[in-house]
Specification:
It is built from three helices and six strands, in the order ββββαβαβα. With about 130 residues, the protein is an alpha/beta fold. The chain is about 20% helix and about 25% strand. α1 runs parallel beside α2. The chain has one domain: Dinitrogenase iron-molybdenum cofactor biosynthesis domain (Nucleotidyltransferase, domain 5), CATH 3.30.420.130. Strands 1, 2, 3, 4, 5 and 6 form a six-stranded mixed sheet that branches.
């Protein structure tokens, strides 16, 4: 199993569509056996689902994620644990211990920001928050 986490400075990055790096964990027998930080090379929003398929991720742990990206994860067969924050390593350890909470309404919250359609069915202005 492979778990990908949106990643910045050791923590879960809070806006999936602007993720520049993922930390990818290889899991075997309920333990982390390998981990690596992978650069997205500037891919955003819809392209990130394909990027995660290419690294063979089975699961994504992230902060905020828009509805279009949530659908792309479902279509790619990638299990989603959204609405998380804090240490990426701790989140994976919590998942392995059966303690990671899945928040179903961790969508983008734009407040009064100007919205831009990114072409993947995800309109996002400013930053996403959980």
């Amino acid at each position: 199993m492979k778990i990908a986490v949106t990643y910045e400075n050791g923590n879960i990055f809070q806006h999936f569509g602007h993720t520049e790096k993922f930390k990818v964990y290889d899991i075997a027998d309920g333990k982390i056996v390998n981990e690596q930080i992978v650069d997205t090379n500037g891919q955003g929003h819809g392209a990130l689902a394909g990027f995660l398929q290419n690294v063979k991720a089975d699961m994504l742990i992230c902060g905020g994620i828009g509805g279009g990206a949530q659908m792309a994860m479902a279509e790619a067969g990638i299990k989603l644990f959204a609405g998380n924050q804090g240490s990426a390593d701790d989140a994976v350890k919590k998942y392995l211990a059966g303690e990671l909470v899945q928040i179903t309404n961790a969508t983008c919250d734009h407040h009064d920001h100007e919205h831009h359609d990114h072409g993947e069915g995800h309109s996002c202005g400013g930053h996403c928050h959980n």
